Amino acid sequence: MLRMDTHLRAYVCSFGTKLDAVRAAELKYLMKYMSCQLLSRFLWTVVPAATAVATFATYVVRVILLFVLWRVTCDVWRIACALCVTVVARL
Fold it and tell me: How far does CA 4 lie from the centroid of its chain?
């Protein structure tokens, strides 16, 4: 009986060592999986918000540029009209 008990403990220790190695590998793969999930969740959260901000910024810049171009165009026409009036007045 004593001999069987000793043999059983040796088997359990060997199995425990193998089980620890399998668990360590499993934890390594689980950590990789969790990292991929974290990156995926981050991208799915951030990309729509970044797209909205970029779209709004593009719209604002476009409106500002159109306003500036309109003002410059108005100033150019105002100067051109003043020159025409001056030229016509000298005739």
Answer: 62
